[in-house]
Structure formats: C-alpha cells, structure tokens
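Quick one:
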Amino acid sequence: MHTQINELFSHLWQDYLAITPSAQKIHALLNQLEFSDVETQGQLINDHIALRTFNIEKINLDKLAEHFIALGYVEKGQYDFAQKKLKAKHFEHPDTNQPKVFISELLVEEMPQAIQDIIYKMLENVDEQLALQDNFLYSGAHWQVSSADYETLAAHSEYAAWMSVWGFRANHFTISINHMRKIKSVEQMNSHLKQAGFILNSAGGEIKGGEEVLLAQSSTMADKITVTFADAQQAVPSCFYEFAQRYPMDNGELYQGFVAASADKIFESTNQN
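Output:
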C-alpha cells in the first residue's frame, strides 16, 4: 500500500515540477540550508497537496477522492468558501507520515451563465471513465479553451481559469516546517525565500493564520508558464509552493486540519496579478 502511495505522489510531484520551475529551485535551496552539514542527505517532508476540480458528476471532488480512499485515506474535514463559490474536503492517512490531501471543487451552478457555458463546453467530450484511470490525478487538461474564454473565466473565478488551462494535477505541494531541522517558523522560511528572490503571496498578509488557529501558512505566487490556447499563446499562472507550521492542540498532538480563512487566501496564489 505504501509503495502505491509513494508511487502516486512521485507521479504528482514530477508532473508538478514540470510546470513549477521555482519549486525545484526552492527545494534545492532548502535542502542546502537543512542538510549541508550532515553526511546523510535528509528529506524535506510534504505536509499536504491540493487538487482542484468542478462539482460536475463525472469529475467531481468525490471522484478525485476515491483514488486516495482506495489507498487508505479517510475524510477528516469539510470547508466552505462562499465568496469563491468553492467547497473542499481534506483527507488523512492512518500513517501520519503520509501527506494530507486537500481537494476543492467549484460550485459551477453558482457561476454566471456565461461561465457555466464555457465549463460545460470544456467538459462535454470528457469520457465518463476518465476519473477511473490510474493516472487521472496527474492527467492535466482534457480540453482546450480560447484565450478569450480563459479571460472570461478569470474575470469571475481565477480558480476556474486555472482549471481551464491545467486540469487535473497537484495545484501545490507543501513543506512541513515542523519537520525541518534549522528553519523553525514561517517567518524564518519567508525571510529565506525573499532573500533568494522568490515572490510571496501577500493576500491577507504573508503569513496566513498562526498559533491562535493552530496552523500558520505561507506560499509563493505561482510561476508564469506560456501555454497554447486554441487561438494564441500566453503566459499564465501555473502552480506554487506552500509552507506550513502546525501547533499542538490541548491534548499535545499537532493540529492536522485546515483553516478556511487561511485557505481562502492561499487560493489566491494562482491569481494573475
């Protein structure tokens, strides 16, 4: 089972790196910081990944979740993002060394009709069996939109615009600060990243949450990658890297959930501006 989980995350990671060159650089930078003084190279630990989708039956949140549930993951929390018209769930594995999984979906019926039309047009030729395929979670987009449709989506939902280009893949990976040897806080992490020239997501402040909500998070802004639309080429936001620090609950165990108010701002890491 663990082999299968590792294999899935390895595929997701390679697919993510292919469109997130900054993640490779940050990974190298943090490895150098953490392990330059030890003979045996350690490992940066992934706190969680996030995946996105639409709440359309054949590819909805539950269809993505099935791939993780089959590997022993269990649903642990539900979240609503009324303003962004999203809902989400998070999943954990009984083996706490395995990364958590955060899956969100856009509530398509709550979008303006023009947006719904674009999304339904994108998905009309998607096979009902797609979600059952082993590589579904890192299979990318199964459609192509025009640059005009992309801009229309972006004006109403940056989330929908991102999905229209990138489809099914990890939207971000997250480094667990709790597992690091030298960097002990989100503040320290952010300081290292900014010194190295990386741009952080400052929506709601560079640090989202904190000890009072048992979880502090920060993230880079997504890389810009040139993609081919049906009618043009254009650089658009791809994926980003997140950093999480968890705090102990009253029982002494680290909080494992998510904070909706913070996640709401993390979503903005893929905004165009």
